[in-house]
């Protein structure tokens, strides 16, 4: 009898683990089929659709390393020529280079493989994070919302979102279990993947404050002290390599983040109201902002049902988008605020869940198609 019960429990656990994997694989089939159809109609190599936009910067860093300076703006040059790989974080290129050296695959193939695997690990990490607090059903809903979210095509491009979500979600899981050193190490690694990932440092600081104040657990500050070490290491490297620790900030201002801080959301709204859907980027950012506001209102009403760490992570990512002169609350930024999907999985009524996932998947297909043109910038 005991042996039979053990086998049943093992079978249930195995089937449960396959739920987030199944959601992820189903979403990738949709994305791959969409990109394959676009490649066939446009007569473009399928590989080029997986290595477009920011992918080329990550692949360039993996192959050649970082530039040493920002190009000067000459009298006949546009601001586009001032873009440089110094505006990107190092963890994804380092992982691509490692896979290339170990497997012998080309850089593009290595990047695509890394993106696929980190997308899978992101789904599992989010599922673990939510399951530990709210149970398997809420965890599965959260993963479905994430992998079918409007910007989820980037989980298949050579982008850093898979790493960002994997390390960030595992960090929140570790914080929930009071494994402070592990949380700090995961936060430090996450901060090497993407600038928005650095928001996890704020989560570690807030968690340490709450733990020390309410539970007299002063060891929690270990996580807060370790968490910034990834950023310190990267900026120290830039100081030696590019002769200034602010090379990333300078590169962003020169090539992407030009304009007054805090204006991105208002500019997107203005463009959407004045141009409608003819400006796809502004329309998508504005509608994404409205969705975040709706989720935020319901989140506030149900805040006692949602862990404080998740609220901190979501608020930190939203603040990053709100402060940016260009990013705004884009679907890609929302994807990096993975706690929003964890909370939404709990907030959305079960009777509406399938409809929400279906609607989101349809938008994902549309944006996946638009990402192959200049209409939408992922």
Structure description:
With 378 residues, this protein is mainly alpha-helical. It has one domain. Helices cover 71% and strands 0% of the residues. The protein is built from 18 helices and no strands. It has helices at 2-42, 46-50, 55-64, 91-103, 107-134, 136-147, 161-176, 180-190, 199-214, 221-226, 229-242, 247-255, 264-275, 280-301, 308-323, 331-336, 339-347, 350-370. α1 packs parallel to α6 (136-147) and α5 (107-134) runs antiparallel to α6 (136-147). Mean pLDDT is 90; it is low at 1-12 and 76-80.
Concise overview:
By secondary structure, this protein is an all-alpha fold. The chain contains 18 helices and no strands. Residues 1-12 and 76-80 have low confidence and may be disordered.
Helix-strand sequence: HHHHHHHHHHHHHHHHHH
Helix percent reads over 70%
Total domain modules: 1
In whole angstroms, the N-to-C terminal distance is: 54 Å
Largest sheet descriptor:
none
Mean pLDDT: 90
Number of strands: 0
* Beta-strand fraction estimate: under 5%
Q: What is the tally of helical segments?
A: 18
Rounded to an integer, what's the Rg over CA atoms? 21 Å
Structural class: mainly alpha
Stretches with pLDDT under 50, minimum 5 residues: 1-12, 76-80
Instruction: Note the overall shape.
Output: globular
């Amino acid at each position: 009898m005991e042996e039979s019960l053990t086998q049943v429990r093992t079978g249930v656990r195995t089937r449960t683990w396959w739920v987030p994997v199944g959601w992820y694989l189903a979403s990738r089939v949709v994305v791959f089929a969409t990109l394959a159809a676009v490649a066939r109609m446009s007569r473009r190599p399928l590989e080029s659709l997986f290595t477009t936009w920011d992918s080329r910067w990550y692949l360039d860093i993996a192959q050649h390393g970082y530039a040493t300076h920002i190009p000067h703006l000459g009298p006949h040059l546009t601001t586009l020529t001032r873009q440089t790989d110094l505006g990107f974080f190092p963890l994804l290129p380092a992982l691509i280079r490692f896979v290339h050296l170990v497997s012998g695959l080309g850089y593009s193939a290595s990047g695509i493989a890394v993106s696929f695997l980190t997308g899978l690990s992101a789904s599992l990490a989010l599922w673990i994070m939510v399951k530990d607090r709210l149970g398997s059903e809420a965890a599965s809903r959260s993963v479905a919302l994430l992998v079918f979210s409007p910007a989820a095509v980037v989980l298949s491009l050579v982008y850093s979102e898979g790493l960002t979500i994997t390390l960030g979600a595992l960090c929140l899981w570790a914080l929930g279990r009071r494994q402070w050193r592990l949380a700090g190490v995961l936060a430090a690694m996450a901060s090497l993947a993407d600038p928005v990932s650095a928001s996890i440092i704020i989560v570690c600081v807030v968690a340490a404050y709450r733990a020390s104040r309410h539970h007299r657990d002063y060891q929690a500050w270990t996580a807060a002290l370790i968490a910034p070490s990834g950023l310190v290491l990267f900026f120290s490297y830039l100081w030696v390599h590019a002769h200034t620790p602010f090379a990333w900030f300078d590169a962003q201002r020169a090539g992407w983040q030009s304009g007054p801080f805090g204006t991105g959301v208002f500019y997107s709204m203005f463009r959407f109201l004045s141009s409608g859907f003819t400006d796809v980027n502004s329309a998508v950012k504005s509608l994404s902002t409205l969705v975040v506001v709706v989720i935020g209102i319901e989140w506030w009403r149900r805040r006692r049902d949602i862990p404080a760490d998740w609220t901190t992570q979501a608020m930190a990512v939203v603040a990053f988008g709100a402060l940016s002169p260009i990013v705004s609350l884009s679907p890609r930024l929302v994807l990096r605020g993975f706690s929003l999907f964890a909370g939404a999985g709990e907030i959305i009524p079960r009777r509406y869940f399938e409809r929400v996932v279906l609607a989101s998947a349809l938008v994902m297909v549309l944006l996946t198609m638009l990402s192959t043109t200049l209409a939408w910038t992922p």
